[in-house]
Amino acid sequence: MRLLRLIKILFISLKFGLDEFVLAHSKFRFLRKLLQTVLFFRNKKQARGERLRLALEALGPIFVKFGQMLSTRRDLIPLDIADELAKLQDQVPPFEYALVEQVLIETYNKPVNQVFSQFDITPIASASVAQVHFAHLMDGKPVAVKILRPGIASVIQKDIKLLEVAAWLIQALLSDGKRLRPREVVADFSLHLNNELDLMLEAANCSLLGRNFPNSPLLQVPEVYWDWCHEQVMVMERMNGTPVSQVGKLRSMGIDIPKLARDGVEIFFTQVFRDGFFHADMHPGNIQVANDGRYIALDFGIMGTLTESDKQYLARNFLAFFRRDYREVAQAHIESGWVPSDVSIDQFETAIRAVCEPIFNKPLKDISFGRVLIRLFHTARRFGLIIQPQLTMLQKTLLNVEGLGRDLDPDLDLWKTAQPLLERWMSEQIGWRSVLKRIKNEAPHWGAVLPTLPRKIDAFLMHDVNQVAELKIELNRLQAEHRKQSRAFRLLITALLSAIVLVLWQMNK
Q1: Residues 40, 46, 49, CA angle at the centre, nearest 5°?
Q2: Catalytic residue annotation
Q3: Which DSSP state fits 275?
Q4: How many CB atoms sit inside 10 A of residue 321's CB?
Q5: Helical H segments across 72-181, by residue range
Q6: pLDDT (tens digit per residue) in 374-409
Q7: Which is higher by pLDDT, 98 or 423?
């Protein structure tokens, strides 16, 4: 079976002229000419990106998902190909109800009519990994039931093995193979797919996002009904909304479209900079609008997370970029550890200016945040930056949010909408609010430590070796902790530790 699958892949690749991607190297010139002669009847008038997209669609849903993921790696592939792959839609014919019933019976160990008072046998949505049905619980509560495709795990594993072979060949044969890191890309794709095979993980993602936006005036997140959730089945609150792409219908409902566009930007930046946890698959198929104008989030299989360092890196870069402070952009890369500390900041600043300054020929409302990130990443790569997976997910999501926002309102000024959010967040991170917040968080710890200091100082003066050793351990531990804090809080703890050491030294003279 695997051999037949490999033959099919080769046939479709040749049919759509994908051999040009592999045979571009001069070493394969003779083979390229041979194929062009033998396969002279092929139609290669379409652009290379379009032919690649059509080939992936012909190969099936797993390859479609791989193409979608590949479209996010704009740090690795040409932009024309990335833009074309972003058009891929993960839509496949539904599997029959007999298989749905089989999965439900195996999951609950009872007939479907003893779990749900009503179950719609026609799915409301169908994708490569799962499909969704509407139903009612026994108490009459309307729900949406997401069910994994039977046997999808084995299909995925077989296709992943073939992708791994293809990645190995690309890395071995292409002159640019090592830079493209194809084996790393496939490994990352495999990890995301395997996560989607456990619907308990998706339910947990949905639940966390809902806790981050309780009673929000901007966003609705369905409630998870945990008693009915399993690895193969996820049951959640049924949401009633209008697809965000149906702008005409939304207008007829009295929805304020420009406000809706601004709200989408605010939701995204709140997820990123307040929570460090964001919906990373925000294409129009996963977003609806409620009758009251709030967004409804759906499908939580792909979520992104950011560390505090990631968030500070991004916020500093955005703010500095739009102030045209390229020195600060360079400094942010270095201080965040994304670029080696021995990089010449002057050269780095010059390179960033050369890439970014032309962008400002456009009005601010026409500048793409996502493409700014792409340009920064491409430039920083020359100075040793290794793109992190969470940043590529963010980049893809940001492009989706921009596209969605400007589809709703072509005059949307993303910078005007996002700037107050970013500046407020930065103030909370490095301003006086941050110092007070960290002091408050550390108060219980210091409350436990400070009362013991007089005894330890006394022991030090009495030359109690054991107590001295204990004091040194405590000071070292505090120093290790304070290195993790923000710059403002570091100064506070450093001053306190210095005062303690000074007192000890004076009393011991």
Answers
A1: 115
A2: 281
A3: I
A4: 24
A5: 79-85, 97-108, 152-173, 177-180
A6: 777 778 778 877 666 677 778 778 878 888 888 888
A7: 98
